[in-house]
Fold each of these.
Amino acid sequence: MGEGEQMHFSDGPAKAPAGGSRQYDVAVVGAGVAGACVARELARWQLSAVVLEAGLDVAEGASRANSGIVHAGYDPAPGTAKARFNVEGARLYPQWARELGFPYLRNGSMVLAFSDDELATVRSLAQRGAENGVDGLRVIGAEELRELEPNVSAEAVGALLVPTGGICDPYAVTFRAAENAARNGVEFRFGAKVESVEKPSADCDASARCLGLEGKAAQGVACGRTDSAYFAEVAQPGNDSCGQVGAPGSSAPRGRAADCASAAPDNQNASGFFALHLADGSCVFARAVVNAAGVHADELHNQVSSVKLSITPRRGDYCLMETAMGQLFGHTMFQAPTKVGKGVLVTPTVHGNLLVGPNAHEQERKDSTATTRVGLDEIARAARKTFPGLAMRGVISNFAGVRATGNTGDFVIGQPEDVPGFFDVACFESPGLTSAPAVGVEIARQVAELLGAQLNVAFDPCCTMPTLFHLLDENARAAAIRKDPRAGHLVCRCCEVSEADIVAALHCALPVACLDAVKWRTGATMGQCHGGFCTPEIAKIVAREQGVSPDELPKRFKGGALVAKAPAHYAEMARAEAGPSSAADGESEEGGVSAGCTQCPDGAAGAVRGSGGEASGLGRASLEGATESTAPSSRLDSEPSAAACASAACDFDVVVIGGGAAGIAAAAAAAREGARVAMLDREPQQGGILKQCIHNGFGLHRFGTELTGPEYATREQHVLAGLGVTVLSNASVTAMKPMAALASQAAAVEITCVSPDGQCMLRAGAAVVATGSRERGAGALNLAGTRPAGVFSAGSAQNFMNLQGCLPGRNVVILGSGDIGLIMARRMVAAGARVEGVYEINATPSGLRRNIVQCLDDFGIPLHTCHTVVGLVGDARLEAVVVSQVNPKTYAPIPGTERRVACDTLLLSVGLIPENALAEAVGVRLDRMTGGAVVSDDYQTSVPGIFACGNALHIHDLVDFVSDEGDKAGAAAARYAAAQHAPAASSACAAQQGEGSSPALIPVVAGEGVRYVVPQFVHPDASSVTLRFRTSDSFENAHIVIEGVAAEEGSASAAVASGCKGHNVGNRGGSPVASETQGEANLCEGDALGADAPRGAVFQQLKKKRVMVAVPAEMQSVALPGNLFAGMAQIQVRMQA
Amino acid sequence: MSVHTRSDMKNVQANPTHSAAPGATGVSGASGLPHVYESKMPTGTAGRVHEETYTCICCPLGCELTVMLEQQSGGLVVRGVVGYTCRRGKTYAEQEAIHPERMVTVALPVVGRLCPVSAKTQRPIPKNRMMAALEELRAVEVRPPVREGQVLVCDLCGTGVDVVATKSIE
């Protein structure tokens, strides 16, 4: 038996003992939702059962890629198997959801009618539903419809309201049912593809020979319908039956099956065993077979029955939209079926996303789930019939599922007349997901009856698993971390999946044989970064727990490993890196100390690392007092951190969120201002992305010398080390509350964070958001095709290479000419890979010129501008990408220009997105252009006391400027916090807090040729301001012009004054910020941004600077001296050619 | 010519080894090995002054540099540089015209450690030795501990330049 072929990485109970028994009472073919539900119900009986699954995880076929709807049962024709099992299944769902613990929500469905004809259709559906026994159906009019679903199309004239319709997570249904079955003794084998099935033969001896059991077997156990011998668990260890079956010279399984059949055509059940021949040459024997092979069920059926079935694969494409769009609809919105088709649905998912689809395309290949451009466009168009406001830029992923549509028109459930003991769950298309529990019950009952099985009194119907971190409340989180410190290590930051969640998934009864199994079981990598950050970390955890390195770990399918090459002994090294237990030991870092924190709900501090030095100035006294009373450390002076956590209500003056370049600079600057500072960083080592940027080119501005990323990070950390900043590493912020929400006015923000040391709450006078950015991921590009291994964000590939020594792939295409992509092109070549080319959708490169020269030109790597990747090819591993020229103006692919470029790896360098989930949650206003906060010149956001800097504010091309921003934001935050202690302080930031007396901020707007400017506002009395901005185009020999619009009374009459330059900002509409309204201009006001100058305004040139902009990606900056802004109503930055 | 000016940067396919025209299938002419540029000078043109254009890589500004070169019996001589906006740019242009150099940065495996050690050449090496140097570095493995600045490889690829660690490994 090809043990090596089997993907058993866990030693859970589901693992087949080597050389163990290959005979079962029941073999279930397929671990989709049907197979899993049948297996779960079989476990209620005293039967030995095995589930044989060709894929590497449960729900590999249609069960994974469908609408996730629990249909009420109004659709199937009365009297059909579909109607029966649909209604029964829908009734079982709430109970199954409780017992098995999968997400299920009875959100109700609607079937929309867009005409009177369709209203009639909808009424007939209501009638049919009533016949099928569906309760509560009601046809509603347009008014009630819009009241229930305000976003529905105005064209809809009514709908069938189906209150019992529901939604579920189809993977979770399948997984939990299977896991429950496995825990109750059902064996699961993944990577076990059944090639053929052979009916029980009269030739008992031959069968026994096949088994290698001659003379040992016949321990007869009477069974329901036949007197056949019952082979109990008799195989001896080492008795490799598979080897014998697949011995050289033996005929093909199909041929042998025919031989057997012809030998005993009239007495087929004599030996009582079906023989299932697997693709690896091994063989499984079972007295009963359940055929739940999805789209392949007809092939299996037709091998044993004379009544032939035929399944036509019908593909359905879907687009999954971001969670922000999940709120748009409460109900599942179907469209009334028409002659043309069933229409597509728009539905919320149990995870809070919005799902649109499917279409229906018959296709030849049963296993191809590649989406097509045509199909994706089709569903978008059709979905707009229901939801005209559907914006495709909200897509986070597209996928396709293949329906098992039979020639029968109905499910085929049960034993064919000519093959007793063979149970079909075939032609199991929609409503299969809903019907599966009921079918499981029915099939298990029939099997038990046939085999005369007794009830299994030990059966446990519940499948309890540790609750995922993101579902726990704060108290439960604290308790979970106390129990297992790994619960405090958030691996997937987007979805808040902890290391403990992942480890639990890896140690399920069902083995994890591919990365996607982790994804589907925990939700990790499903967030907005598309796994860009957490995939390398998950790879490490899998290796540590299961000994499988990322070059052996399939992403989803056999042959599609995560990376092309990993270091030898990867798993051992991953274990060594994690340390003897977990990283949670208190004394994990130099100077580390874990101390009880009276402020924290669970009495624990974060992983606290004092960075040496003494806290000085502000708040020093209270800090020292607290230090003496609580901290157990012998290095009190250098360990203010834990102590501070236990001190007064305002734990810190400034809390900096993020330990990258911006965060370090902000923390250091705040400390230099005398503030008590805590810096929270999710990583064990600070420095953020610099740690993996091993190339040079950093630090020319800040340090006057050219450094590599790690060197720059080290220098910054050295600076920080002497300033007494409390560094909490491995700490992820899970909540931030602004002052308004707090009773205490002493603090501006309250921050909750978790680390392996516990959950900790910090209060601070000010917070600096330095959370960096994430890469735009593959899902967001809505690429058509398959979803193979080998597609990386450039930063993810960089992490694998530079922090784990892996080679992501050998033949690389890079999409997007952003700096990371260019740097990675050179890096891949340096590591011995071949880079086929860089494809850029714009007419100009997105990266810096010098990177084009030294990363592409130096290595002869072609750059194809006005090109993009439109499709992915390859099932397990990427085999090629389809590239296309695009229209330079619309970016639309030009039909006929597509070509295939062979490669095994696609790196995406298609933009960075400021990471502002936390800031948004506290109401910080974001700039649509930058994706970051709207800030004033002191980097304060629209929420008082919350500051922002670095890539979280806007995307930088140079770390030096990130640090510069951090300096300024940190210092301003410290001054703000200080002003809270001394309300009389007259600093600019304090003034903004004063009630009623705040001086108006002056908006800074982007004029002609400028995309955005940061900061978006300046204080009239600002001493000096650096404006950073990006242009909308390349410029040669152009000028940057900074102009002020004077805030004169009745400025309309003061049109172009002499010496001032009149300039029309552009043709945008929008409300002008006139002098009389300027008093209201502030960070929260929506209209101020990008507003036109007042009509007839007086422009005063503040600065003009000659500049050449080679690529719009280059960030421009202009420093302005102070005292320029007094009396101005608006500042404008524009380009003058 | 192997050096791209800004205007032809948008169309690198014009490079003779990568002549894929828009719409052509695949990248024709791309051999398995990336090629390295060499500045080629017309022969037998002693005394004649000609211009070369480069994009400065010293900082993100990416200044357009034009170098006036004269072919003399002893080789090329720089007669002048225009377009630079700082001293580094001028030096770079002079260097790039006569003897182009590049820094090389790599990550080298560390025995028993999952995380490699990042490293760089202590100073730039001749551009035409870059691929050979990278090849040589692919065979290097380092023993911990490593201190930042520690020499990991002496005389890389016969260039006389050492490779030093850019971070410390305990």
Note: The CA atoms of residues 160 and 502 of chain A lie 42 Å apart.
Amino acid sequence: MKTRSPAARARLWTIVPVLLLAFGFVFAAPWLKSTVGPTTLALAAAALAVMVMGYANLVAYRYEAGLDEVQRAGASFATKWGTSAGQVAFVVLMMLPPVRDWAISTVTGLVGAADNGATAIAFIFFGFCGVVLLQTVGTLVVSVLWFKSKQ
Amino acid sequence: MKNRIHVLRAERGWSQAQLAEIVGVSRNSINSIENGKFDPSLPLAFSIADAFGLRIEDVFLREDASSSRLA
């Protein structure tokens, strides 16, 4: 049987459940909206965000415990600069009119523009997801660059 | 910081993976240290020296010994 490295296992155990949850939520959103209402839908989204964050922290903790000092230095450097780069990338992306319009139409399409409170919570949830996603991408890119520079 | 890991490995016929297994780090980490791209901590430097059965100063060398006031 093919064995995976700790990094590959961590990526697998992080990405697969998070993707399943995210896609499950997006597909279930119309049904949730029609049955429980937009406010409960938005609260479910917020709870999902907290759960994903906690799960990601748990996987990161378990992953870091198996690293040696060189890998830990790389992970620390990548986290430091990758998260900052992800935040900046999110702000820059949101300043681009096509991306901003797409985000607004997606969220209002899911929750509806009638309920301002639910729409605001949905915007916060999807904004949070966007920041975390870009931080993850930024961390992965910086991590790859760091390890390439050390070879 | 310079080191003689490549030479010492060659003398013993060890691969980077073998040394990594003895020391308890990844092969990539040994590669980074061997190429001088990463300076190991003292405990890891001692572990590497122990793996070769040498003193730490026989494995790791100062980059520019003449610049040290203690030299």
Note: Helices of chain A lie at 6-36, 38-65, 69-95, 97-111, 116-149.
